[in-house]
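Reminder: ligand-aware prediction takes two inputs, not one.
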Amino acid sequence: MRILGIESSCDETAASVVEDGERVLSSIVASQMTTHGKYGGVVPELASREHLRAIVPVVREALAQSATRLEDLSAIAVTVGPGLVGSLLVGLTYAKSLSFARSIPLIAINHIEGHIHAVVLEAKRAGTPVQYPALALVVSGGHTHLFEVREGFHYRLLGKTRDDAAGEAFDKVAKLLGYPYPGGPVIDRLAPHGDPSAVRFTFAKMKGNALDFSFSGLKTAVLRWVEAHGMADEIAARRALQRAFPEAAIEQWLAASPPRTLDLLASFQHAVIHELLTRAAACAQEIDAQTLIVSGGVACNSGLRAAAQAARLPYPVLFPTPGLSTDNAAMIAAAAFPKLYRRDFAELDLTAQANLTLA
Ligand code: KG4
Ligand code: ZN
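Here is what comes back for the chain with zinc ion:
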């Protein structure tokens, strides 16, 4: 059984064909990074326009690469939320039109559930299916959430960020220091060149749910540190580098980063990783988790992957391969298989839900 997945919730237009919930036959992702890069973040109007431009060729390519005809599809899965409403509408409208024109069942998918299924899919493919209950840490530009995942894909929200998402913190700190967007991958590459114990960042104790996250205080602490250390000139030099070389290589960023700045980046990344892993581990213990799933764009972070391995947790910690960590449509198609078996189909009056929650 083949499902076509379509994803357009933020700044990636993606389509994928997945077979039997475990074989990714194609996964096409058209990134809008260069469009938004010069603005230092996603511009919603531009995102919708880029999705409109990309959606038809991206879906066509996903079908062609997997040698799939529309009549071979058991369903079309599409992201309905959460995300930018204008962006979501492009994928959703296209999926609905295709579903209606070819009488193919439509399945609505929550983007966050998609991120969790990126791991479920690969674990199944590897012959070592996820053991439940699992704890899922979804860390991306828009979300930092902890969910209990029970057999049959029942979710319970255990903690979430009160303010910025972890990926957003990476992006904002990078921007403040004059590095390009998105900041996560740049900081990831530069951090190993600095000393993670050079700057001590502390997190405020959470009132209420002790498992909630907060990253805005950390961002402010970085700002204060920058102000106290007279870094205006080097930041201006990096902004000039960005303007002159929008696609500058990591070596150029490294050359434009004095040792104390590399120390600051390493310390910031260390603080984020420590915060994510200690809360996830506490949460996993609380629910007696058999697996820890880490997914979303920040799951690409090599420091986070290394720290999760080094922590020697008493259950397997599963990350998706990098291509399935950031936004993609294979995870959307994968999340639709359990719904296909239950014949949990959507009606054509389905609408985009910008603030959709998972639990
Ligand atoms: O999952 P994703 O592609 O989109 C959302 O659903 O938000 O995640 C994008 C986020 C961005 O904030 C980006 O900076 C972050 O993931 N990211 C990383 C890395 N790669 C992407 N953060 C830290 N380290 C990375 N290697
Ligand atoms: Zn995402």
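The mean pLDDT is 96. Residues 22 and 122 are 7 Å apart (CA to CA). We will return to this case in the review session.
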